Amino acid sequence: MYISDFKYHKPVSLEEASKILEHSYNAVPLAGGTDLLVEVKKGLRKFNDLVSLSGIPGLKNIEEDSQNIYIGACLTHNGLVYSELIKNKIPALSGAASKIGSEQIRNTGTVGGNLCTGASCADTAPILLAYDSQVELASHKGKRIIPLRKFIISHHKTDIKKNEIMTRIIVPKLQKSSGASFVKFGLREASSISVASVAVKIEFVSGVCNNVNIVIGACAPTPVISENANYFTLGKTIDELTNNALLIESVVSAASNDTIPIDDIRGSAAYRRQLVKVLTKQALALAIERTKIVN
User: Fold this and answer.
1) Is the CB of residue 128 less than 8 Å from the CB of residue 97?
2) Cα–Cα distance list, 63 to 89, 113, 137 (Å)
């Protein structure tokens, strides 16, 4: 199938890119293009203007301050995988990125693209939600920063405006006695789309859980923050969350019950609910184990 005609733009600034997006009847930003160009080639989406972000400086940078890590939205997945800063400070994100697609996809696809696509099975979204991340959106009219949990509205629907470009993802640094993890299940080892995934970030003070985020991916129109699973986890000790089988079953059952999975070619809704139980147990145990690592 031939790609429909469009104009290709390569602006050199955010302001220029934003103005093209605003004034075009039907334009879209282009980062890695691993999803977008496939859909265009298949005739699923058509655009008058494709606005490349590759000529805009700074969109692949990784920076940090005392509180946060700032990830350029055009950083590739392998940029996350191999960055020493990401591996050392937010290893669960590096691990999640390593499970996306193939080596070729990870060399091209971007973290911002993964989020802006708004797919329910996006692998970076659950762990970034678990970290309480925010996203920075910019246009020629200014910038705004919003929580990621408010940015993803529904499947393939986000809060990005017509003239906006995602520029950075802001990830709070973990506190001491904190740990995070991401686990997924696909139908094969490589190049797999998640059938279900779970991300956990947990924090302890004097051995008692005082902060937790359990997020389920690929089992609802958006990643689900399991408030009920969080409720059963808060206030519990490391020993209880490691050795109390009844408590652990309450946590994983709550996570499973908070999902609204569908039946599709990768698995039934009932299969996904059972998967969420298994993955939540694994992710919780791994996050707790990582709290023992000195930050």
Assistant:
1) no
2) 12, 19, 17
Q: How confident is the model at residue 295 (pLDDT cuts 50, 70, 90)?
A: very low
For the entire predicted model, the pTM comes to: 0.95
Q: Answer positive or negative: Cα dihedral of 214, 84, 170, 121.
A: negative
Domain total in the chain = 3
CATH number at residue 277: 3.30.390.50
Which pLDDT score is estimated for 293?
59
Rounded-to-integer distance, Cα 147 and Cα 78, Å: 24
Q: Are residues 84 and 165 in the same domain?
A: yes
Q: Please choose, from the candidates 225, 164, 236, the residue with its C-alpha nearest in 3D space to the C-alpha of residue 199.
A: 225
Q: Which amino acid is at 207?
A: G
Query: In 109-148, which positions are buried (b, 16+ CB within 10 angstroms) versus exposed (e)?
Result: bbbbbbbbbbbbbbbbbbbbbbbbbbbbbbbbeeeeeeeb
CATH number of the domain to which 39 belongs: 3.30.43.10
- 259 inside domain: yes
**Looking at the structure, do residues 90 and 147 belong to the same domain, yes or no?**
yes
* Average pLDDT of the residues of the chain: 94
Print the domain residue range for 77. Answer: 62-172
Residue 120 has, within 13 A of its CA and on its CB side, a CA count of: 15
Pairing of strands 27-30, 49-52: parallel
